[in-house]
Design brief:
211 residues, mainly alpha, 10 helices
Length: 211
C-alpha cells in the first residue's frame, strides 16, 4: 500500500502560509528588531494562529534562520562553472562571478539580513552561523575551486585559499561596511560591472602566470 500524500492544493496552501509567515517575520524583524518582535506580532501580520506558526517553525529563532536560508540561496555561486584554459577566460569567469556576487549580496533585503545576523549574533548565535554556512562558505568554496583549477593549468601561481581571499578583498573593498552602515547607496549595475572587472584585472596583475 503506497504512503498517503497530501493533495497538491494542500501542498500549495502550506507553501503559501510558510511564505506569508517568513515575509511577516522578516518585515517585523527589520522594523522592530529581533528581540523586540513577538511571535504574536508575526502571527498577526501573517494572518495565522500562533499554534500554526509554531507547528511550522518551532520558535522565533528558527523563523529568522529560515529567512536567512531563503535569501542565502540567491547568493550561492553556480555549480556548473566553465573550464578555464587561458587567463582571458579566467578574467571573464572572475568578472562574472564578481558581478553575480555583488548583484545578489547588495540587494537591500539581503543587506538587511546581514545586519540582523550581526545585531543578533549574541542573542541568537544560530543566525550568524546559518548565514556563514549557507551563504558565505559555499561562495568561498566555489571561488577557491576556480582558483585551484586555474593553478592546476599553470594560469596562476599561489595558494587557492589565499587567492580567493585576495579577490574578494579587491572586489568588496569597504562596500559592504558602507551598506551595513547605510552610509552609501547600493551600486548601480554599471558600477557593479566596473568593480568586478577592475577586481579581476588587479587580481591577475598580483598573480602572474606560473612559470
Amino acid at each position: 500500500m503506497s504512503p498517503k500524500t497530501e493533495p497538491p492544493e494542500q501542498d500549495a496552501e502550506g507553501l503559501e502560509v510558510r511564505k506569508r509567515i517568513l515575509g511577516a517575520a522578516l518585515s517585523a524583524f527589520m522594523e522592530g528588531g529581533y528581540a523586540q518582535t513577538s511571535t504574536l506580532e508575526i502571527a498577526t501580520r501573517a494572518r495565522v494562529s500562533k499554534r500554526e506558526l509554531y507547528s511550522l517553525f518551532g520558535n522565533k529563532e528558527a523563523m529568522l534562520v529560515a529567512c536567512i536560508t531563503e535569501r542565502a540561496q540567491r547568493i550561492k555561486a553556480p555549480a556548473d562553472l566553465p573550464a578555464i584554459h587561458d587567463r582571458e577566460m579566467l578574467a571573464k569567469v572572475l568578472t562574472a562571478f564578481g558581478m553575480k556576487l555583488l548583484t545578489e549580496t547588495t540587494d537591500p533585503v539581503v543587506v538587511a539580513v546581514f545586519r540582523l545576523a550581526i545585531s543578533e549574533a549574541v542573542n541568537a548565535p544560530k543566525v550568524a552561523h546559518a548565514l556563514d554556512s549557507i551563504a558565505r562558505k559555499p561562495t568561498r568554496d566555489s571561488l577557491r575551486t576556480i582558483m585551484a583549477n586555474a593553478r592546476s593549468t599553470d594560469l596562476v601561481a599561489g595558494d587557492p585559499e589565499a587567492m580567493a581571499q585576495t579577490f574578494l578583498g579587491l572586489l568588496w573593498g569597504d562596500l559592504m561596511t558602507g551598506l551595513l552602515l547605510e552610509a552609501i547607496n547600493r551600486p548601480s549595475s554599471s558600477e557593479i560591472a566596473r568593480r568586478a572587472s577592475e577586481a579581476s584585472t588587479a587580481f591577475l596583475k598580483l598573480y602572474p602566470q606560473s612559470g
